[in-house]
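hey so u asked for the seq, here:
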Amino acid sequence: MTKLATEHASGIVDKIISNNAGRDPERLKMKYDKMAQSPFIFLRGACHLFYEYLPDAPLFHDVPLAWCCGDLHFENVGSYKGDNRLVYFDINDYDEAALAPVTWDIVRLLTSIQCGAEALKATHAEALAVSLTCLGAYRNALICGKPLWVERETSGGLVNELLTALEVRQRSVFLDKRTTLKGHQRSLILDGVKAMPASHAQKKSVTLFIDQYAATQSNPKFFEVIDIGRRIAGTGSLGVERFVVLVEGKGSPEGNYLLDIKEAKPSAMLPRLTSLGIKQPGWPDEASRVVSVQKRMQAVDHAFLEPVKLDGLSCILKGLQPSEDRVSIGEWGKKLDRLKEVVATMGRILAWDQLRASGRSGAASADELIAFAQQENWMHGILETASEMTRVTELHWKAFVEAYTIKQLKALYLNKG
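ran it, structure tokens below
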């Protein structure tokens, strides 16, 4: 059994406050506003609670180790442009990545499907059916043992429609959504939705960093800074140091590029992994962990992705792409067959990514993963646990909303965690 949510609402809130201590108050408030909306969004924003309450059962520790995303949920799978300029569909958020029991990613993915059932307008029975489809596709892909990938020519259904649309999307359209254009000069839209103003000190710090970084590149003019803002994106990472930088790129105004600089925090899985005695490699810093695991798991490297230091902070630098879109869990309504098709693709992608990173730095070999998948006794336990973790997440969400409603979260907003 899980360590069920028997604490008073204040106990759950205390854990959330502690986990988010030191974050930017404005974006932290945005995070909690979002988390109060639904159990699914709460799941995304409280990854640490998921692993704290994951059952202490052999299924989650006496199994092969694999490189895991750590925060795998329905909306953390989407498109990205690789360094070969093709667009792929894959897991695209590795902030919580770590070496962990192979079952952890799949049970979190299935929990997200069940937590998101209301947004999908799906019944409980339908969410279970979708979960079974995803799990079956994952198991079969592991047993096959050959890591493949998804791009436009190898995709079908909704994924193919997404990738086909992205192939023809122009950079100028993407830029027009994030910037305003006066004459031949662009500036960031700082409306509190995608970005907000940065202070003078922050702009000075980021500009100095970009200038120093540019000096190490073959085309320094590409990185000439035009504008800087504090970036608003995601749920779990809201409140960490994060900037969006508009640079000259290939020439103003249509050739401008947007860069994302995000602080990397320790994995939310780490406390539970430490308690199980599962050691991690000695990464130079947190950003190196995130980038290294992402490159191990994805079939093709994300274009322009590397670990950097900004004022001593370990950060991930990457280019924001017009081709980077995520699957929104609420888009399919009652189209259950199409939803099953998408989640089957997600299950296969997870298996392929784990196989691709197998045998690296303590991870089990492909043969060990295949042997595990061939067993018959683990799938039922995964489905039962996903349902149980859905109930636990809903209990935690209700406790959070209770505290949120009676304004017990004021300390969070004031950043006094």
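The two ends are 30 Å apart (CA to CA). Confidence is low (pLDDT under 50) at residues 1-6.
lmk if thats what u needed
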